[in-house]
TrEMBL record:
Transmembrane segments: 26-59, 79-111
Classification lineage: Eukaryota, Metazoa, Ecdysozoa, Arthropoda, Hexapoda
Signal peptide interval: none
Basic and acidic residues bias locations: 167-181
Protein name (database record): Derlin
Amino acid sequence: MIFTYRYCRMLEEGSFRNRTADFVLMFVFGAVCMICFAFFVNLLFLGQAFTIMLVYVWSRRNPFVRMNFFGLLNFQAPYLPWILLAFSVLLGNAVYVDLMGIAVGHIYYFLEDVFPNQRGGFKILKTPSLMRTLFDPLPDDYQRLPEEQPGGFQWGNQNNRPANENNAEHNQEQNDNAENR
């Protein structure tokens, strides 16, 4: 759970910043692929494979981050899924669970980051506009209606003061400056 939380958070704050719909599409793509692969390997619980998929995508998008494994092994981020696989094998877990997560993560990474940047490549995974409408934040040029704004008074906001108050204050400052000379 800690790995899932940590790498989801780092992905969401990093490469998926202000792109929540794309983040949800990655989840849906990973879930569908893993469910399809799970039929062939007779796997019921996909949580560990999903976590490894998230780790793989994060590690490929952050290739220059230095990692430390239990204070013993220093390496760069792209090796993290493979080190977790080796550690999982040392603990006696099944290899195919982590390999399935790495495979699905690599498929997503290839379709999203590698293939569109190749000569003649194009974006295969396109986020539907319905998902963008549901999940992405509103554009910056959106003007909130007065009834949507909390409060009702803008205490201390100098720009919203009536013109005669600003003029009176300005005149008072000029008079004070003239007296001080």
